UniProtKB/TrEMBL annotation:
Ca(2+) 1 binds at residues 85, 88, 90, 92, 94, 106. Residues 1-38 form the signal peptide. This is Peroxidase. Disulfide bonds join 53-133, 86-91, 139-340, 218-250. It is found in: Secreted. Binds 1 heme b (iron(II)-protoporphyrin IX) group per subunit. Binds 2 calcium ions per subunit. It comes from Canna indica. Substrate binds at residue 181. The keyword Hydrolase does not apply. It catalyses: 2 a phenolic donor + H2O2 = 2 a phenolic radical donor + 2 H2O. The active site is at 84 (proton acceptor).
Length: 345
């Protein structure tokens, strides 16, 4: 068993027409793992590619490292892609598909348009993986691994990524518009959108901590600077000096695409500074601010993570695994795409 090369393994699964996932799970049950009690219970596990593509994780890591070395912000963009994937039809790489035929790309949705980025990095990872082990590693798993690697490379926590997701055959622009919270949603709406995906308040606050890196466009926070409640006044909860700094970069009209760091104090470092900013009334997005100004459970969690990087890191890792488990396609559902931007034909 140990002498099989990945290539032989791949050919074997194809020539016998055995559903690859079933084969793999049986294989790993025999070879490795007394932990998994059922071969088709649809659950993900970190060793999924250990035999079919043993180099999968190291290939993902090396392409992400190269991309982040070239453009540090890419780490943020890749984590966000995984989030925007998982909140729409589950973690199935639907976010990566281009429009074609009857299929409309989620790249056009309100949260993604002129905003989501990193697609070419995912495509580069995919082509490296296709060379190593064709049609084996899903685009959905690439997103999950790239999100973990991006977190680690910017100084955040690491975790084992459960694997075995498969790729969707379709998209949902409506799901992208409706399920992903908007920056001007109320706290209650944001909580509900997380709850609808099986995530609680603890997950919401910890995962929002991802705004410790990356940028926002002016258009995503302008309302707070000029006319928060329709009375022509800025958001009263925003630190006035910080608001003035933001207005300089984000005029009342125009400059929609101007960028501002979500955490201007340590914008390239994955740390708990985001929570400290919130306590100082220096959250950039309204959706950040409401975690504190809403009081109650979310504000207590913000205080907890501002006080302890360790508590934040531990919960972030746990919540990322939970987010990554949102209704994946497994077994013979969906497919393994050969390019992430289009379904196989
Ligand atoms: C809680 C609800 C959330 C809202 C309302 C929200 C909203 C936003 C908005 C409006 C931006 C700026 C987009 C732009 O203007 O181009 C942004 C950026 C970002 N978001 Fe969130 N987000 C939320 C949760 C999350 C979660 C859960 C994650 C990851 C686990 C995340 C990761 C990021 C990252 C890393 C960026 C920066 C991306 C880049 O620089 O390319 N966000 N978010
Ligand atoms: C939220 O922002 C969207 C997009 O800019 C806008 O159409 C909508 O009116 C805003 N909602 C509220 C409650 O301000
Ligand atoms: C603020 O928003 C309200 C409601 O959308 C609008 O009627 C008013 O003209 C705006 N005021 C300014 C100064 O932009």
């Amino acid at each position: 068993m140990q002498t099989q090369t990945p290539t032989q393994h791949h050919c074997h699964t194809h020539t016998t027409m055995a559903p690859p996932a079933t084969f793999l799970v049986v294989f790993s049950l025999l070879a490795l793992s007394p932990l998994y009690s059922s071969e088709d219970d649809g659950s993900l596990y970190p060793q999924f590619y250990d035999h079919s593509c043993p180099k999968a994780q190291e290939i993902v890591t090396s392409v992400v490292a190269k991309a982040v070395a070239k453009d540090t912000r890419m780490a943020a963009s890749l984590i966000r892609l995984h989030f925007h994937d998982c909140f729409v039809q589950g973690c199935d790489a639907s976010v990566l598909l281009d429009s074609s035929g009857t299929l409309t790309s989620e790249k056009r949705s309100n949260p993604n348009r002129n905003s989501a980025r990193g697609f070419e990095v995912i495509e580069e990872i995919k082509s490296a993986l296709e060379k190593e082990c064709p049609r084996t590693v899903s685009c959905a798993d690439i997103l999950a691994l790239a999100a973990r690697d991006s977190t680690v490379m910017t100084g955040g926590p690491s975790w084992e990524v459960p694997l075995g997701r498969r790729d969707s055959l379709g998209t949902s622009v409506q799901g992208s518009n409706n399920n992903i919270p908007a920056p001007n949603n109320t706290l209650q709406t944001i909580i509900t959108k997380f709850k609808n995906r099986g995530l609680g308040i603890v997950d919401l606050v910890a995962l929002s901590g991802c705004h410790t890196i990356g940028n926002s466009r002016c258009t995503s926070f302008r309302q707070r600077l000029y006319n928060q409640t329709g009375n022509g006044q800025p958001d009263a909860t925003l630190d006035p000096a910080y608001a003035a700094q933001l207005r300089a970069r984000c005029p009342q009209s125009g400059g929609d695409q101007n960028l501002f760091p979500l955490d201007p104090v340590t914008q390239f470092k994955f740390d708990n500074q985001y929570f400290k900013n919130l306590l100082a009334n220096k959250g950039l997005l309204n959706s950040d601010e409401v975690l504190v100004s809403g009081g109650g459970a979310t504000a207590e969690l913000v205080e907890k993570y501002a006080a302890s990087m360790e508590a934040f890191f531990e919960q972030f890792a746990e919540s990322m695994v939970k987010m990554g488990n949102i209704t994946p396609l497994t077994g013979s559902e969906g497919e393994i795409r050969s390019r992430c931007r289009q379904i196989n034909h």
